Amino acid sequence: MRSSINRRKFLTGVAVGTTALTAGALRPRTAAAAASSYPDWIPASPKPPKRGGTLTRASAWDPPVLDPRLTQSIGLFQFVGHTSSRLVRYAFPEEATGVTDPTLKGDLAESWQASPDHRTWTFKLRQGVKWQNVPPLNGRELVAADVKYCFEAYAKEGVQSFTFREIEGIETPDKYTLRVHLHTPNVLFPHNVAECVTVIFSREVLEEDGDLKKRLIGTGPYILKEHTRKVRLALTRNPDYFDKGRPYVDELVILSTPDFATRLAAFRTGQSDILQVASPSEVETVRKTNPAAVVQTYKNVLAPFGLALAQDKPPFSDLRVRRAISMSIDRQKQVDTVFEGHGIPGWGVPYMYYQDKAPTLAELGPWWQYRPAEAKKLLAEAGHPNGFETTLFYYEYWPQMTSQVQIVQQELKKNLNINVKITKLDYTTYYGRYVEGKWDGMAWGFQSGHAVGLDERTYMYLHSKSTKNFFRVNDSVIDELTVKLRRTPDRAEQAKITKKIVDRELDQVLRMWMPYDGGFLIYQPNVRNMAALALRRPDGYGSPTVARLWLDK
Amino acid sequence: MQKYVIRRLLLAIPVLVLSSLIVFGLMRVMPGDALVALMGESGNVGERELKKLRKDLGLDRPYHEQYLIWVWQMVSLNPGDSIFTNEPIPVALKKSIPVTLELATLALILGLAIAIPVGVLSATRQDKPADYVGRVVAVSGLSFPDFWLGTLVITFAAIWFRWIPPLGYVSIWDDPWRNLQQFLLPAAVLGFRLSAATMRMTRSTVLEVLREDYVRTAWAKGLAGRMVVYKHALKNALIPVVTIVGGQLGTLLAGTVVVETIFALPGMGRLTVEAILYRDYPVVQTNVMLVAGVLVTLNLLVDLTYALLDPRIRYR
User: Fold this and answer.
1) Which three-class secondary structure state does DSSP give residue A512?
2) A271, B32: Cβ pair inside 8 Å?
3) Which of A46, A127, A314, A484 has an alpha carbon within 20 to 30 A of A209's alpha carbon?
4) Helix, strand or coil for residue A390?
């Protein structure tokens, strides 16, 4: 049988195929171009808010327990900000001047003031704040002794203890005054008690149950009505909430939906009101079926992930080795390919604390540029002209991470002849090994996702004595600067010190940040005042921002 | 037969003991523990606190002690609490078993409802278009993995029909219609997979039986085609089919893990996988033992079913 393909047909086929492949290859760029048209800030609606309705969100997370002393899991803190208040909080979207506004507002506290030496902080509480009208609290008034009890319980045991152990003692001179004495001066202390994980829980529940694993009663805008593990969380409006008239939405429902395809389908069919997607092409896919959906580009103010090196041991204790590794990694390539042109090259301290605009790759300094020839030379100077063998372990938080890990492995081999043996772990193994801090070689490291405050992002994560210093930074200059920052009340001066910390970190390559993209938030068109703020998305640790949201139905 | 059943039940004991040792050992070999998972991304827990929590949970005891305590708890039908959630395990099982049971039962019904008629049709129309269609369906069922099929089904249901099963599980007793909507698609996905092997087995055994003398005799007697196929041929062809269905029940239980995740159903599969990820030893161990017990029982039931299908079979 003769073939029916002649030369002309073959060439036509090749031409069509090439065109299709080219179109396919260009697609991410096209999607990225479309993505760049989405705003990173959605201003508050000028319309008067409407009361009522149910806001539903299909969520990847499920709370392991309801006890905020025992976990910092995103599964718990995706809704604890609804049920419970903090002493102070960060601005909600409708109050903020923009996405990076880190202004503090009073939550349970009306005002707060430091002593001249910043070792004593006095918080004046709102009067008439009631606990939710649920037994055993039954709507009794919240007083300063409640906050004192709660802070002391946090310091006593659990995952928040490091933050609260800087408290030397607490006084309650009257029902509405709380005086906190610190071991050392800290001008940023209010920021630490504004983090979403520092909610005020009730004394009665802890005393009756011995823990807070089953009941969570607070003073927040919503009452926890139902928690069925792996099914749903339902929260109903608290009619006694101290911020009169709020919240606007009657019911919040969080549906446990571990699979992304299902969350996407739920959004498409209107079963979910908020969706997070990772890439520009995914946004375009959603827009095909839901053209009226509102898209916000999530503003990245830092990269939470990077290459963590066992820098307290050779060969990574040698600065030249760290610099060489950093220069052998093409970060722009990762941004262009893995993140489809939509991402940041990576840094660790939120830039809004030291400059107005996000740093460019060039601004990160010489050791962060892709210069493989210089990298090889530097590694040879450090005594490794033929490279070396090492290991890297990681947990795949999302599929793009595996691509990044593999790119780094290839580049280290190609540019420096460093052979990296990769081990992909499950979350528990990864987390246990990583935070224990005794591993050798390299890890794909992280810094915690919940923190907005400058103290958490500098002193807590970088000081050599901090238990949250996962990247094993041990630098006397950084130690000195982070302590100095805690003693500097002037904002302009704080910005200068923060910049020095960042410059030192980048120069010494203490944490080798990798490109990152927070992706996009997509909302149903009738959701108002939902803008995601930097480090405060409305679906995770930043969920308290949902308190001011309303539905235009 | 009574002796046979007793002997089989006694034989189940070493199987269950071995299973318990394997699952207990594997969980201890895995790095990390429940406390680490529970802490989330905090890292600010001192060694002192971790030690205290480990002691409170009995995780600091020697392994043989932990094993014996657990076995005693299992024997006394009190498997303890989840380390991760503090929830008593029987409570968690009471919530998740009905979900998996309903899903597996529906999948089995759908799977058999597809497999047996199509298998018989394929056999009676051998090498005809209906046979080819049946065989293609069967091979597809064997080739498509659950996660792929489930994802495809939910994605295209959303795009084409603007509908997916309502999220947020409700019990069949609370809202039967909503419950049915939630289970139909996942059961169809699982059932389709299950039907593939059964369909192929039904086809080949029916083909074989159709060539037997007694079937020829039935035709010669002038019996109606339906009577010959369903009464004389199918019943005798069912023993291998029952064997393969029994064998596939384990696969069905494994399939529920993926399908429950995709369709957000809070069944045994999700409970077990999460417990493994969080190193929730008591939950994993109890679930594995429960599944082992179910499989042992099902295998026994399958063996006993043979006698119902073929009276010539005797148990000694």
Assistant:
1) strand
2) no
3) A127
4) strand
Query: Tens of pLDDT along A265-275?
Result: 999 999 999 99
The closest of A457, A493, A492 to A478, measured between CA atoms, is A457
Q: Which of B45, B164, B168 sits opposite A265 (nearest CB)?
A: B164
CB contacts of B154 in chain A (<8 Å) are: 261-262, 265
Model's pTM, two decimal places? 0.88
Q: Which of B49, B264, B279 sits opposite A257 (nearest CB)?
A: B264
In chain B, where the domains are located:
2-75, 89-277
CB contact under 8 A, B266 and A70: no
**CB spacing of A431 vs B42 below 8 angstroms:** no
Residue A400: is its pLDDT beyond 50? yes
CATH code, B89-277: 1.10.3720.10
Q: State yes or no: cis peptide before A538, omega within 30 of 0.
A: no
Smallest CA–CA distance from B168 into chain A, residue: A231
| A48-297+519-551 classified as CATH 3.10.330.10 | no
Helices (H) and strands (E) in chain A — how many of each? Answer: 18, 20
| CA A369 to chain centroid | 26
Q: Where are the domains of chain A?
A: 48-297+519-551, 305-513
ipTM of the complex: 0.86
Which tens digit of pLDDT belongs to each residue from B182-235?
999 999 999 998 899 899 999 999 999 999 999 999 989 888 888 888 888 888
Nearest residue on chain B to A76, judged by CA atoms? Answer: B40
Query: Does the pLDDT value for residue A30 go beyond 90?
Result: no
Q: Which of A421, A419, A423 is nearest to A396 (CA)?
A: A423
